[in-house]
Please model this.
Amino acid sequence: MQQLAQRLQKRRLEKGLSRQALSDLSGVPAPTIARLEQHYAISMRQYLDLAIALGYADEVGNLMKEPKYKTMDELQTIRNNKDRKRGSKGEN
Model:
């Protein structure tokens, strides 16, 4: 979360926005933005609102759009489950 917070702060500063200005654009309170930048704590919804306000709507929309895999077995599992709507009964 620290890296995400630092990247968001960097993008905010690159655009010359104060926390209050970003708050006005995103609807996320300025103290919440400060808490993110200083303590790396924020809700997912608020983080997405900030990213969208900074112009990253496409990147947010593409997040986890395609499946990722490391092995051929994992790829096969993904293919077998591509239309699955629920987890198994024995799943934790």
